[in-house]
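Allow me, if you will, to draw on your knowledge of protein folds for a short while. I have a record of one protein: its chain in single-letter code and its fold written as discrete structure tokens. Could you please explain, in whatever detail you think fit, how the structure tokens follow from the sequence? The record follows directly beneath this note:
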Amino acid sequence: MEWFDRLLGRKHPSSSQKSASDTQLVTINWASSPPHLALLQRFLSARDAKDGAPDYWEPIFGMRPQCVIDGMVALGLLEPVPLLEKIEICHTGAELKKILSSRGLKVSGKKAEQARRLVEADPEGMENLLVHRKVVRCAPAVSEVVSTWVAEQEKSSEMAIDGVITALRRRDFKTAIRIADAYKESRFQFPNHPAQDAMTIKSAPRSIEGREADFATVFTLRPKILNGLQPEQWEGIYLNYAVWQLLGSTAPGKCAPGFTGVGAMDSATATRMLSFYVKHQSDLARMRESGIKKAKVIGIGGCEACFALKDKTFRLDELPELPYKDCTCELGCRCTAIDLARAKRIP
């Protein structure tokens, strides 16, 4: 029963004999701790324990994540994988060929065959070669608990998506925003890399009323690059865009089932073009408010239409609509416009 107690995070009478990191972990009921469950989720498939989590997650646990992982290993929550699997994970195909060759063994075959050949020929040598590598995965009972938690998270996500889409179809943008905000507030997420945060421009929080007005406007926009969409297809793209903005990921299967596209564009590309159009309109409004009169088109597309616009300067009232309607790029138009003063500062 001691292992079962440890599995549930219960403190066992003999726990005083454990290491400090083990004791810290035992006092936490990992099965109800989202950070610990999310960390264990990374080990549903075998991986090197040293690559399990970055150091910038430390604030979540109150200690270095590696200490938490080491404690999980010591407690049996994470267990070593068989040598054969360890070899496959720790070595590339090229490395296995080199090891096989050094032992005078046949080098051909798939990676699994190469690894098996090495284990059969020299198990002790391979153990010694990887003695400093600790490849682990969740113990079976732990895997069951973590998989159940993951399924619950996925169910919550599906419910949020369904609720948001239902509200959006009614054009009840306020309810859609509240459902999305409540879901994002409840879900667990590890912190972003500090470098990513440093490069992210954080805007001031907007009121629900302001965000509601934004979506109401977007659902009336018809960028010319999407000319040819049928009414039901426009609806699907509007929904997909709004779900993306509210929840951080699209749901084309729910928003635009059976989308036949426009030209070579699939639903993802069409949604991206609507997003670019919204940003372009916002940029234009900002430039006008700042008294800017001219802008330069920065084109990164590969089609003739985009090349024709590249590096050209226009008065704002003469600037072509972007994304450009004549673009034939496979990923859609990526042209953007920036004010002339800023363009001169770009090498």
User: Anything to note?
Assistant: Residues 1-18 have pLDDT under 50 and may be disordered. The CA atoms of residues 300 and 334 lie 6 Å apart.
